[in-house]
Specification:
heterodimer; A: 343 residues; 0% strand; B: mainly alpha; 4 domains
Chain lengths: 343, 354
């Protein structure tokens, strides 16, 4: 009995030596549970999604029931010839680019203002400005949909109406002052209300961008402000003594300090924008007439509204591939994973 | 319960600081007037400061306009929100009817607002010989309890996997460390959108294994999605704690667990606060997967909120929606408010600057 246990232990220790795992590596055991959970719920579905994309599945039941058949890359071929795919792809990229540029400008502006020596109560303002981060996305997006309402009395239409009145009032004031000629307000300055924010293609796109910027700016502001606070005051003082103007100081002192954090925040929020689903979905389901379907919305609708599971899976695999590629280059060239290699 | 007291203290200190802000503002103004009179500051100098502050305020007003609008809306149940008089409801008609509706009629706390109270009885065939039931309600607990259940699973599972992993990444070297960390960084931003992207596959998989309509599994799923980003975030935070602290403690005879308890945990508190908020939000806010996988009696608050928003294709019941959403966001807002400084320092990503 004792000897059999002995051989068992012996075999076990042989097995132990065979595994490329030394005592030094026990840290892996701390990481493994998270990895396993992540793989089970995230990586495995991606693999399965890829499998679905190779079949002619039409709805969930056909995948589960096994009636779907492998058809190779047909779905991908069909995708390339689908004009809706190209519309969706280009709209998505445009959305990412436009919203990213506006986001960076807005966030840097806010961060500079909230870090400016002349602004009193900065601390409170900083606390208030990141409040949107605390609200659920579905809530803020629905509120923005309400504000962008097509209705005559929607918030933005009322604001535009008031803008029109202000312009007209200004025009009549100018008209009164300039008594020798009659002045009328040029039509170009007036907005044709009500604007159908959600029923026009570019109006809706514009509404998406504004909302996306509003959702993402708090995160960027936090990161930029904390970078700005780490800039030694002496640097600014020294630059001032050397006679550098505000703009010069901005480009030589401030910009180098916030360049990396801005890049970093851009990469993260850019990748999120690419996968934006809720804004188009809640606003008008990617409408009007499927012109604004961002890539994930497109895939989702193909699956659930048009019962094209296989095609939908192919779309989503392409989307995941793009984000993966984007993140790969971002990590590689943006030195995001700088901490990875230093041990 | 010391953590409860310390966070209550923190919250109180914050509130006091906010309550005394006007007084400090008055002092600031008096000081400025004094300086101008004494000739220490020129009028232009003061004017420039006032102008910049005003600009800051204006920006804040514009940025927070949607929140102000929706809060005003939540106080105006029974009045027409969109009318000819402008975009804000008349303050004289403010009332709390919408909140009353959320608490006593909606499914927020109890289904159909039929309040009950918990009773504990000995006996029962669970793991513990104690059974727990709701009494005094005909309909049972509502969406809040589903949400809390999901979030507790997400937080407990998430923390028990994120914190040790972040420690290992930050302090230990082991095989495949670089590869795994690299993979995590790649996946940091694929979280939220990815779960929708894989929804098609998820639905099929969950149905096959009979895991749909299971709150525990859903909590696990959210925890899994939160792992890469939060592990990485906490790891970068821990990297900023000098190793020499632990070494010094080791020299003084502290055991491994003691260094964890006395050095690592206290010094990573801001980082832990941040990931607590992120992990909480991961479970609290998501609704598309929840809506697809759960059946109506198990809907969490986020799904109820979405359903409220899309009740009619063109007419969201704004006042009720706003009241519901404000109560929904309240727990997060409180945590956030209390831990704001931690959030800011925890999100600064240590070595990212420069």
């Amino acid at each position: 009995m004792a000897s059999s246990i002995g051989t068992g232990v012996n075999q076990l220790s042989q097995l132990w030596e065979w595994i490329p795992f030394s005592k030094r590596d026990w840290g892996l055991l701390l990481v493994a549970p998270g990895m396993i959970l992540f793989s089970a719920f995230m990586l495995y579905p991606i693999v399965f999604l890829f499998y679905i994309s190779l079949t002619d599945a039409t709805f969930a039941g056909s995948v589960i029931g096994g009636s779907a058949e492998l058809i190779g890359l047909d779905n991908y071929v069909q995708l390339l010839s689908d004009s809706q795919f190209w519309t969706s792809m280009s709209t998505t990229w445009l959305f990412v680019a436009v919203s990213l540029v506006i986001k960076v400008i807005v966030a840097v502006g806010i961060a500079l203002l909230l870090n400016h020596a002349r602004v009193a109560g900065k601390r409170y303002m900083r606390a208030a400005v990141i409040v949107p981060l605390g609200f659920p996305a579905i809530f803020t997006i629905t509120v923005w949909r309400g504000m962008f309402s097509d209705a005559r009395f929607g918030v933005f239409n009322v604001v535009l109406d008031q803008y029109n009145e202000a312009v007209l009032w200004l025009g009549s004031a100018v008209d009164t002052v300039v008594f020798f000629a009659s002045v009328s307000v040029p039509q170009a300055l007036l907005v044709d209300v009500p604007v159908g924010f959600l029923s026009g293609r570019w109006e809706a796109f514009f509404a998406y961008v504004i909302t996306e910027v509003w959702l993402a700016y708090p995160f960027m502001v936090i990161i930029i402000v904390s970078a700005l606070q780490d800039v030694p005051r002496e640097l600014h003082e020294a630059a001032k003594v050397d006679g550098a103007g505000y703009f010069h100081r901005f480009t030589t002192v401030t910009l180098p300090a916030i360049r990396r954090p801005v890049l970093f925040a851009s990469i993260l929020t850019g990748a999120t924008s690419f996968q934006q689903f809720l804004i188009p979905w809640v606003f008008n389901q990617g409408g009007p007439s499927r012109q604004n379907e961002l890539i994930i919305v497109y895939g989702y609708r193909e699956a659930l509204n048009f019962n094209e599971f296989g095609l939908s899976a192919a779309i989503l695999i392409v989307a995941i591939g793009f984000v993966g590629l984007f993140m790969y280059f971002a990590v590689k060239y943006g030195r995001l994973a700088e901490g990875v290699a230093d041990k | 319960m010391s953590w409860l007291r310390s966070s209550a203290d923190l919250l109180r200190a914050k509130l006091v600081s906010f309550a005394t802000a006007p007084k400090r503002a008055v002092v600031l103004v008096k000081r400025a007037i004094y300086d101008v009179r004494n000739g220490d500051r020129s009028v232009f100098d003061v004017a420039a400061s006032v102008a910049m502050t005003a600009l800051g305020f204006l920006m804040l007003l514009v940025l927070l306009f949607p929140l102000y609008w929706i809060t005003a809306a939540s106080l105006a149940e029974g009045t027409r929100l969109f009318n000819t008089d402008g975009i804000f409801p008349d303050p004289s008609t403010y009332n709390l009817d919408a909140y009353r509706w959320v608490i006593f009629e909606s499914d927020f706390f109890f289904e159909s607002g039929d309040w009950g109270y918990p009773t504990v009885a000995l006996g029962g065939n669970g793991l513990l010989p104690v059974s727990f039931e709701w009494a005094g309600t005909d309909t049972g607990p509502g969406a809040l309890f589903n949400s809390l259940y999901i979030v507790s699973v997400t937080i407990v599972v998430g923390f028990s996997m994120i914190v040790p992993a972040a420690y290992a990444f930050s302090r230990r070297s082991f095989i495949a460390r670089k590869r795994i960390l690299y993979g995590y960084v790649l996946f940091t931003q694929i979280g939220a959108g990815l779960s929708i992207a894989t929804l098609v596959a998820l639905y099929s998989l969950f149905s096959t294994y009979g895991l749909t309509n299971n709150l525990f599994i859903l909590g696990l799923f959210y925890a899994a999605g939160a792992i890469p980003f939060n592990t990485w975030l906490l790891k970068t935070y821990m990297d900023n704690i000098p190793v020499s602290y632990e070494e010094a403690a080791m020299v003084d005879g502290a055991s491994f667990l003691e260094t964890i308890r006395e050095i690592i945990i206290p010094l990573t508190k801001p980082g832990l606060a941040v990931i607590l908020i992120f992990v909480w939000l991961a479970g609290w806010n998501e609704f598309i997967i929840a809506q697809t996988l759960l059946s109506p009696e198990n809907y969490p608050l986020s799904v109820e909120l979405y359903n409220l928003a899309t009740e009619g294709r063109f007419s969201t019941p704004w006042t009720r929606f706003a009241a519901f959403a404000n109560l929904f966001a309240l727990p997060v807002a409180i945590i956030y408010f209390a831990a704001q400084r931690s959030v800011e320092s925890g999100l600064s990503f240590g070595g990212m600057e420069g």
